[in-house]
Amino acid sequence: MIDMEENERTRTTGSALEKAVGILEALGEHVRALSLSELAELTTMPKQTVHRVVRQLEELGLIARETGSDRFIFGARLRQIGVSALSAPRQSLATRQILTELVAEIGETCNIGVLDGEQVLYVDRVECHWPLRVQLRPGSRVPSHCTAIGKLLLAHLPGAQRRELLPRLELAAFTRNTLVTVPDLEAALATIRGQGYAINQEEDSLGLNAMAVPVRDASGKVLAALAVHAPTARLPLDEMLARRPLLEAAAGKVAEILFGA
């Protein structure tokens, strides 16, 4: 009897967890907020079940209502869990060592970033030792449309997600090189997908260039990016591009640590 009761509790718990994970996965696959009806359709669960699970997830802070609507997005608590998972002490020490060695080889600042909503979130970053440098801490957020990491991650979003997201971006012009229209940005993203890397040629700050390469999981999906940043006077773009093999080798090591790739 005890075994039967335990098995029943296990099945019930597992089923509830599977439902919750299904809803979170549905939200993660779409850039825009989703309604209860949309979540029910995407997860093939009864709307009443979705309503119950969503309420529980909302109470836990794992999802939240979009401001001014009854649609749902990831909650602050879930976002923090994601950041903590990527920057867990053991992983952080390992990725920090990879970045430190890369900075020693190239002589310029390197970082790892992920797409968080419409922005890039820096998961880890190691600064170079030059007096002239842009100092940003891990946890900093920057625009996605004018940064190498941002453009690379946008380029590798599934087509439907990308088409949903691009019109929502605030395409602010930071320099004369910033891409400020969706067609121009989409064309640049297509080039990035074809060449396998992204560059930021003075698009967010005059006098600064950057190059980013993908960090992939075991299935080949791009989940993060690794980049180098440098003043143009110190590391011209052609010399930066010549460092691409170093970045790709480091990205492979990071992928193994973060995603078991």
From TrEMBL:
A molecular function annotated in GO for this UniProt entry is: DNA binding
Query: Which superkingdom does the taxonomy of this entry point to?
Result: Bacteria
| SMART domains in the record | HTH_ICLR
**Transcription as a keyword?**
yes
Q: Which UniProt keywords apply?
A: DNA-binding, Transcription, Transcription regulation
Q: Where is the HTH iclR-type domain?
A: 14-76
Chain ranges of the IclR-ED domain = 77-260
Record GO biological process = negative regulation of DNA-templated transcription
PANTHER family for this protein: HELIX-TURN-HELIX TRANSCRIPTIONAL REGULATOR, ICLR FAMILY, HTH-TYPE TRANSCRIPTIONAL REGULATOR RV1719
What's the protein called, per UniProt? IclR family transcriptional regulator
Organism name: Cupriavidus campinensis
